[in-house]
Write a structure and sequence with these properties.
Length: 336
């Protein structure tokens, strides 16, 4: 992967992203994090999932992707310098003159460009962005509590979906003819502002999804800055980030193991969970745990419902998808 092709510069290749990735590599190499990884691996090896065919062999791949995900998430929790982090990418990549390992959480969709920013509820922010030519099929801004070391901020006990304090979707926003948009984020009610997210008190997490119905589409350009309210806190140094990451890692892994155990109520194998509305009314999802013998196949027949975005994807026993650069692990509307 390169950060530019001809005259096109990737919206993901920001100076802030480069700084975060350099920092993440330092954190991952910290001895405290390495020690925590040993404890987290023991949790995975002792879990019933590890007894499934082929699952034990995938433990290190999955754990390494979870570790990168947690490290980026913890760096994003340093709200002293707000910025968007491209935080989930299943494939190792090379840019900014260095290699960077892939990251993952659970059933991450390769059609989605996931970015996030850590926020403080007493601060006022402005997000500015632009939908470029060939932009995403749809995009969303989802506000949750900051995960604080868990997989994501879950605002209920269902484990069925990611919680949302506020969801702003592209279909509900005012976007200029040239694709530019601006979103205000503060503690005040919207008061008629369509492009507004009201912030409650406390540490928060803004998750952005750009959903691509065709891999020739490109992510939006987005940026965030403080515009008022409380002063930003002092920055966390690498030692504090490493200590937090090491402290979080075993619980982070336990979170995703429990998520796997309870996902969609853990239906019987080869039983489809019917479509249900995603949090914030940004779409629908259906799911199925499946097991096939060597002489069996599963056939999925669907109608796309004229949706702006539609996709089907698979994941392994640990709910991590294969790298989409080397495997057919998903199909979206264009690919089908």
């Amino acid at each position: 992967m390169s950060k530019s092709t001809g005259s096109f510069s990737s919206p993901l290749a920001t100076a802030y992203q480069a700084t975060v990735e350099r920092r993440a590599l330092r954190i991952i190499d910290d001895p405290r994090v390495a020690e925590a990884r040993v404890r987290a691996r023991e949790l995975m090896a002792a879990h019933p999932l590890a007894a499934r065919p082929g699952a034990a062999a995938g433990i290190d791949r999955v754990l390494d992707k979870w570790l990168v995900q947690l490290t980026l998430q913890t760096i994003g929790g340093d709200v002293s310098a707000p910025g968007f982090i491209w935080g989930t990418n299943l494939t190792d990549y090379h840019w900014f003159g260095r290699d960077f390992p892939g990251s993952a959480a659970a059933i991450d969709c390769p059609d989605n460009i996931y970015r996030n920013a850590g926020l403080e509820g007493a601060v006022q922010y402005q997000v500015t962005g632009q939908v470029l030519a060939g932009g995403p099929a749809q995009f969303t801004f989802q506000l949750t509590r900051h995960p604080e070391g868990d997989g994501f901020a879950i605002n209920d006990d269902s484990m069925k979906d990611l919680g949302a304090l506020h969801m702003l979707t592209s279909r509900d926003m005012d976007i200029a003819a040239d694709g530019r948009f601006s979103i205000s984020l503060d503690s005040a009610p919207a008061g008629g502002r369509r492009n507004h997210i009201q912030l409650p008190a406390g540490r928060l997490y803004l998750l952005v999804r750009d959903s691509l119905s065709d891999w020739r589409q490109v992510a939006n350009r987005i940026d965030i800055r403080r515009t008022g309210g409380a002063a930003l806190p002092a920055p966390m140094d690498d030692g504090a980030i490493a200590a937090a990451t090491a402290g979080y890692l075993p619980g982070f892994v336990d979170f995703w193991l429990r998520f796997n155990d309870g996902f969609n109520g853990r239906p019987a194998v080869n039983t489809l969970v019917p479509p249900y509305g995603r949090t914030g009314a940004w779409g629908y999802a259906a799911a199925c745990r499946f097991h096939l013998n060597d002489d069996e196949a599963m056939v999925v027949t669907v109608r796309d419902g004229d949706a702006d975005y539609f996709g089907v994807q698979v994941a392994d026993t640990w709910m991590i998808a294969p790298s989409p650069t080397g495997h057919i692990a998903s199909y979206n509307a264009a690919q089908t």
